[in-house]
Write a sequence for this structure.
């Protein structure tokens, strides 16, 4: 790992490209849902992430049960629920913001496992995020986001958080290989749910009548988000401290909301910007405060 705690210009651009792909992908998902049912879209995403990837990447040295758990949590849990919510139940901009609450769920789960208590800065961070979510809930009536959609995304975020714990305990060193091989366990349940909900005729019609743009959106889910996104992120984490790389992820909802405004004309009234500011502020405090505190403690007197 590099001793530098500052990203080089080239690596900073790479990190920016990754978060831009992850953020703008929410609009790509929304457009793809016009052609594919949500669980079919999610199933295709993970099927194409797994194949042909498993033939080129060595299986990570972790238990099969761990791969299966991560695949189910991230595939069926996170993305299945997220795609279902984005199918007319929540706007792409708000979805890109609310899914980031996985940070708080991860904190709560980690603390519960080791018996720790919330510290002051974590309480402040969580309160800011809760107030932001409250602002969103006060403005659900008559908009493009429903309470059900909001709850679905929060459930997706909690599933992502559990997946984070599973991945951390796996000890996997190759993040891309871990994601690719776990996708083998994500695709089947998603495709099964799609089959049970829509039936074979609807799924066959969606697959055979999808436009080239629709298939590009599906491939983008696998190649852009999984292969490029996770591969590049793992590349950066192998060369810089996590504290240097991980804060860049705070830009994901910024790109997500901006892309939603530009591409599909999502309204961005003051209350939505205020809610986003509160949630992102909470995320920023949870990420930056402990690093700032640690830096002050090691600073010479």
């Amino acid at each position: 790992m590099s001793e530098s705690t500052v990203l080089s210009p080239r690596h900073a651009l790479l990190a920016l490209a990754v978060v831009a792909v992850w953020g703008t992908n929410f609009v790509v998902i929304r457009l793809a849902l016009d052609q594919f049912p949500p669980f079919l879209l999610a199933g295709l995403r993970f099927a194409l992430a797994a194949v042909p990837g498993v033939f080129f990447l060595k299986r990570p040295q972790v238990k099969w049960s761990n791969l299966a758990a991560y695949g189910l949590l991230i595939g069926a849990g996170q993305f299945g629920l997220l795609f279902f919510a984005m199918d007319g139940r929540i706007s792409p901009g708000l979805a890109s913001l609310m899914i980031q609450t996985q940070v708080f769920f991860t904190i709560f789960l980690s603390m519960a496992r080791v018996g720790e208590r919330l510290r002051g800065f974590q309480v402040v961070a969580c309160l800011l995020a809760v107030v932001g979510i409250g602002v969103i809930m006060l403005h659900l009536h008559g908009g493009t986001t429903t309470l059900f959609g909001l709850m679905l995304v929060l459930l997706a975020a909690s599933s992502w958080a559990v997946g984070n714990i599973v991945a951390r305990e796996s000890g996997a060193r190759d993040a891309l290989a871990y994601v690719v091989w776990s996708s083998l366990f994500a695709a089947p349940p998603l495709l099964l749910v799609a089959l049970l909900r829509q039936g074979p005729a609807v799924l066959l019609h969606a697959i055979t009548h999808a436009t080239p743009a629709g298939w590009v959106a599906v491939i983008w889910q696998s190649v852009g988000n999984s292969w490029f996104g996770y591969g590049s992120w793992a590349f950066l984490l192998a060369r810089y401290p996590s504290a240097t790389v991980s804060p860049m992820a705070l830009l994901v909802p910024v790109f997500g909301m901006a892309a939603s405004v530009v591409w599909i004309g999502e309204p961005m009234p003051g209350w939505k910007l205020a809610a986003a500011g509160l949630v992102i502020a909470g995320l920023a405090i949870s990420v930056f405060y402990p690093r700032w505190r640690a830096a002050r403690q090691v600073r010479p007197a």
